[in-house]
Specification:
This is 3-dehydroquinate dehydratase. It comes from Sphaerimonospora thailandensis. The chain is of the alpha+beta class. The protein has a single domain, classed as Roll (Nuclear Transport Factor 2, Chain: A), CATH 3.10.450. It contains three helices and six strands, in the order ααββαββββ. Strands 2-1-6-5-4-3 form a six-stranded mixed sheet. A hairpin with a 2-residue loop joins β3 and β4. α1 packs antiparallel against α2.
């Protein structure tokens, strides 16, 4: 069980690293292959559900092609394992450039659920669901906009 959790957490980190580095090949390695009884699924913040490996990977390719820089700082990471399914929940503190005419960065907060499944090829990401956390305009920027 400990070895499985270590593998799942390493794969979760690989998922975020693939996005940060814009590496679609690495992102493809993380996701499951579709079968008759399961398909890859993804919900990006503010998007409808995407179903099917090709649709999911196409969305990541689109993000990567249009993202000059992105960095994730994960907190509140929790890993739960039940048989051949594992769920990792976390808070994503996301840093992106502020805009084309501005210097600096903009930050946002997303709560994510990543569901992994054991396959013949090892653990793979089955479902990613990211939900934005609305920040109060009166909060200080340094507070992060979420409770710990």
């Amino acid at each position: 069980m400990k070895e499985d959790i270590e593998q799942i957490e390493a794969l979760n980190e690989a998922f975020y690293h693939a996005f940060e580095s814009g590496d679609l090949d690495k992102m493809s390695e993380v996701w499951i292959e579709d079968t008759d009884d399961r398909v890859a699924m993804c919900v990006h913040p503010g998007w409808a559900m995407l179903a099917g490996r090709s649709s999911v990977l196409r969305s990541w390719a689109l993000f990567m092609a249009n993202t000059t820089y992105i960095q994730f700082v994960l907190s509140d990471v929790r890993t739960m394992l039940s048989g051949d399914v594992a769920v990792v929940t976390c808070t994503e503190d996301v840093l992106v450039p502020a805009g084309t005419d501005e210097l600096g960065f903009a930050a946002g907060v997303v709560v994510a659920t990543n569901t992994f499944i054991r396959t013949e090829s090892g653990w793979r990401l089955w479902l990613h669901h990211g939900s934005p956390v609305m920040q109060d305009e009166d909060e200080d920027e340094g507070e992060g906009g979420h409770e710990q």
